[in-house]
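Example record used in the benchmark description.
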Amino acid sequence: MTQPSTHSLFLPVRGMAPVPNNVEPKTQVRLDNWRRFIVQKARPRKGEFQPVTRSTLLTIEMIFVFLQGNVTRPDLDNLVKPVLDALFKPHASRGENPDRASVLSDEVKDAQVFVLHLRKRVASPMEQEGVDITISWE
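Model output (C-alpha cells):
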C-alpha cells in the first residue's frame, strides 16, 4: 500500500504585528490592514497551492510571532479568524461578496480546514512580528 502524497505550502507573513478579531470599532482599520497585508503576501503564492479540489481536506499550522511586550495579549483564539478570512474570504472585510474565490485557490473554502495547530511565541532579536502559516493537504 502506498502512502498518500502530502503537499505543503509555507507562507511567512512578517513585517506587521498580528491583529485579533475582537478589536474595538476604533481599531477596525488596523484589522483591515492586517487582512490586506496577509492577502498581499499570499496572492503571489497561488500557483503553489496545487493540486486542490473542493474535497481536499486541509491542515493549517499558524505560529504567531510577537515582540516581548506584546506576546501575552491578544488571545490566541482571536488571532485565527482574521488569517483564515484573509486566505479564504479576502473580499469579506471590504463588504464585497464573501463567496468569491480564495486568495490561494478558486476551489478551496475555509470549511475544508479540518485540523488547526496554533502557537504564539516571542520574536528573537532582529526578528519581525507576524505569523508563519503552513498549509498541508494530501
